[in-house]
């Protein structure tokens, strides 16, 4: 079966019609971040201009951008790390002992609106002096990362045949030993998927940090939000900051594209 | 040595309890306990700024919130935002998924592009769309004038703010539906299609009789998941309008946030949270029921 030339052109145009609207805001963001203030406020909007890196320079120099970048990284990486420690064994147990209720319990944590625990956290954290502390922020972000990790890992363990562990236990190993030395070493793809996705969601989180952090533990999304709230909007710098904050997630997505797709879609395509 | 062996056995026999225990304790302490606390607070009139100790008023906070026109408006707005966004996302997502569901050069690249809105920081996205919507320098109005249409105030006017925000949600989340449906379509076997071809069915009949029924479980789960997330939309709205102009884009989530962290009326904020919580719980139950019925 050979599709005709005109049909192929038509299909190509169709793909462009799909891709361009998705991509365009990113292109516009990037373009604006490379414009001078004069070019940004010009009417009609300038499609052709001389690009400049001065916005990026301003963002990285004047704002405490690197500090917020570091905060976002510390909080994201720690939340993912501790969630892995707790989540992977839980996911294994859900998959192997068919603990449906437990899996629903964790799923509910993923679905609940964050603000329904944020308000009580605010009160409790204030009492415990956990406001604007790394411990408090990591704990709050773990409620984002843990459900994702359990959800993805339990689906992943479901796909690993039990024969491997069974032959290990026949050879005299305990179940926990079989888990550590037989199952975990081949769980790599699941771990990559869950770590990538949960880190991205922690990185992008705005609401928790907006309430629980102040200057010391401020993360990037808050920094960029406050940046806009200033009296005069310096659009070029704001767009440069926006591009910079999205870069890590986009780079991770490019590297782990297949895993990210799998992680985002696996919940729905079970049945 | 014998003792060690015995301990190993204990661990092994109770693995199904010990392995999930830390995660369960964490979720109970960080989620269940706070949610119960919120329930408790909803029966009080606690106001952090008043400096008065909280007193239990039973359903009086509920009465006050339910009588508040602002609450009913926010409730209605949350629904219309969700329904509008999810409806368009599902229809458009379905169409795009059907188009992409074949082998072609650049499919991987197209999927990568689809992923970008999903992994982008919502606050940054919202701010970028604000520049796009800006009435005086924004590209959106320029595009309108190119088409010979009058300029709009977009998020600046009460009548256009919700559709403008919905458009951002559609832009960001339609790809999610596309990717889920693509994964679902890929898992359909080709047999029914082949026999339909032999029977001479046209594309339209194939879609309604074969594709749609087979993809329905996936579509339904995607729809509910997306609806729950749309009900909870916070970052985009907060970053773009803060619920304004006036209260014109205030959803339950935004209203609860303001009651909690701007007015510090914890009692009434808790009432709003209870409603939001019940709404999401209801939708979650639907999802759980449905997944069970599919698995059985």
Task: Please give a structural write-up.
The complex is a heterodimer of chains A (271) and B (296). Chain A is mainly alpha-helical and 271 residues long. Chain A has a single domain, classed as MetI-like fold, CATH 1.10.3720.10. Helices cover 76% and strands 0% of the residues of chain A. Chain A has 14 helices and no strands. In chain A, helix 7 (134-159) runs antiparallel to helix 10. Chain A is globular. With 296 residues, chain B is an all-alpha fold. Chain B has one domain (22-295): MetI-like fold (Orthogonal Bundle). Chain B has helices spanning 2-13, 15-18, 21-41, 60-67, 69-100, 107-119, 122-133, 139-146, 161-186, 191-198, 203-231, 235-240, 252-261, 266-295. In chain B, helix 4 (60-67) packs across helix 14, helix 5 packs antiparallel against helix 11 and helix 9 packs across helix 11. Chain B is globular. The two termini of chain B are 46 Å apart. The model of chain B has no long low-confidence stretch (mean pLDDT 87). The chains are: A mainly alpha (271), B mainly alpha (296). At the A-B interface, helix 1, helix 4, helix 5, helix 6 and helix 7 of A face helix 1, helix 2, helix 3, helix 5 and helix 6 of B.
């Amino acid at each position: 079966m050979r599709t005709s030339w005109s049909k192929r052109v038509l299909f190509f145009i169709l793909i462009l019609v799909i891709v361009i609207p998705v991509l365009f805001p990113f292109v516009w963001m990037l373009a604006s971040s490379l414009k001078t203030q004069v070019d940004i406020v010009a009417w009609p909007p300038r499609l052709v201009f001389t690009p400049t890196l001065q916005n990026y320079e301003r963002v990285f120099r004047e704002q405490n951008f690197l500090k917020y970048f570091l905060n976002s990284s510390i909080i994201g990486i720690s939340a993912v790390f501790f969630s892995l420690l707790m989540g992977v064994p839980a996911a294994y147990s859900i998959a192997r002992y068919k603990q449906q209720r437990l899996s629903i319990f964790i799923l509910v944590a993923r679905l609940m609106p964050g603000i329904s625990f944020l308000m009580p956290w605010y009160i409790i954290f204030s009492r415990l002096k956990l406001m604007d502390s790394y411990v408090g922020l990591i704990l709050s972000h773990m409620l984002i990362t843990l459900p994702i990790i359990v959800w993805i890992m339990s689906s992943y363990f479901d796909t690993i045949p039990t024969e491997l562990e069974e032959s290990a236990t026949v050879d005299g190993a305990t179940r926990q030993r079989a888990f550590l030395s037989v199952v975990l070493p081949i769980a790599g793809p699941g771990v990559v998927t869950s770590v990538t996705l949960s880190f991205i969601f922690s990185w992008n989180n705005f609401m928790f940090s907006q309430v629980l952090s102040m200057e010391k533990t401020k993360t990037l999304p808050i920094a960029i939000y406050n940046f806009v709230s200033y009296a005069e909007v310096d659009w070029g710098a704001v767009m440069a900051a926006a591009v910079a904050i999205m870069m890590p997630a986009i780079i991770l997505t490019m590297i782990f594209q297949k895993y990210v797709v799998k992680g985002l879609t696996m919940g729905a395509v079970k049945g | 040595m014998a003792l060690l062996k015995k301990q190993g056995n204990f661990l092994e026999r109770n693995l199904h309890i010990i392995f999930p225990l830390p995660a369960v304790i964490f979720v109970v302490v960080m989620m269940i306990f706070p949610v119960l606390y919120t329930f408790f607070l909803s029966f009080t009139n606690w106001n952090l700024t008043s400096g008065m100790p909280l007193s239990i008023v039973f359903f009086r906070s509920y009465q006050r919130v339910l009588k508040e026109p602002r609450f009913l408006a926010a409730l209605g707005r949350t629904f219309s935002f969700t329904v509008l966004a999810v409806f368009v996302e599902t229809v458009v997502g379905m169409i795009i998924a059907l188009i992409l569901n074949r082998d072609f050069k650049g499919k991987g690249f197209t999927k990568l592009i689809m992923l970008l809105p999903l992994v982008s920081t919502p606050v940054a996205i919202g701010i970028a769309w604000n520049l796009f919507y800006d009435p005086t320098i924004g590209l959106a109005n320029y595009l309108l004038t190119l088409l010979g249409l009058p300029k709009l105030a977009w998020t600046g006017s009460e009548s256009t703010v919700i559709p403008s925000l919905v458009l951002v949600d559609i832009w960001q989340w339609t790809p999610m539906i596309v990717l889920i449906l693509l994964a679902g379509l890929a898992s359909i076997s080709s047999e029914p299609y082949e026999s339909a071809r032999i029977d001479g069915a046209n594309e339209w009949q194939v879609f309604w009789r074969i594709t749609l029924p087979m993809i329905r479980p996936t579509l339904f789960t995607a729809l509910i998941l997306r609806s729950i997330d749309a009900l909870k939309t916070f970052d985009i709205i907060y970053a773009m309008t803060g619920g304004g102009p006036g209260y014109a884009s205030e959803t339950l989530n935004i209203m609860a946030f303001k009651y909690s962290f701007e007015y510090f009326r914890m009692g009434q904020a808790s009432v709003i949270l209870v409603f939001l919580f019940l709404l999401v719980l209801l939708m979650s139950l639907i999802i759980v029921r449905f997944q069970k019925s599919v698995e059985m």
